[in-house]
Design brief:
With 125 residues, the protein is an all-alpha fold. The protein has helices spanning 2-17, 27-37, 71-75, 82-90, 92-95, 108-119. Helix content is 46%, strand content 0%.
Length: 125
């Protein structure tokens, strides 16, 4: 009986830690979510705005591109992938205390869609 309870507890714990970003998002829907980001971020390589360019963000080290980052972001040891972007977009200040980004994407589905869109490495015209 104890083993069965432990197994159920383990499965429940794993389910709680599963990230929505692991599920495939919809890049077309993500393009619509990105419109909220485009006020501060460009998708054109090297085109920084209030925030850094998001062109080719996957695999990049956080705070290391040609942009004036907050001290916290410049010191962060993060490589952007599905998991790190999902956590950061959900609550930037919890991931990088002292970041200047305050905008959140609270809905897991929106984050998954946005991440899917960014993975397509879009560039703005």
């Amino acid at each position: 009986m104890l083993t069965r309870i432990s197994l159920i507890g383990t499965v429940a714990a794993l389910a709680a830690f599963a990230t929505p970003a692991a599920a495939e998002g919809d890049a077309v829907a993500g393009a619509k979510v990105y419109k909220r980001c485009s006020t501060c971020h460009s998708l054109a390589p090297g085109e920084n705005m209030m925030g850094p360019s998001l062109a080719g963000v996957f695999g990049k080290k956080a705070g290391k591109q040609d942009f004036k980052y907050s001290k916290a972001m410049a010191a962060a040891d993060i490589t952007w992938d599905e998991k790190t972007l999902d956590a950061y977009l959900a609550n930037p200040t919890a991931v990088v205390k002292g970041t200047s980004m305050m905008f959140r994407v609270p809905k897991a589905e929106d984050r998954a869609n946005l991440i899917a869109y960014l993975k397509t490495n879009p560039t703005e015209d």
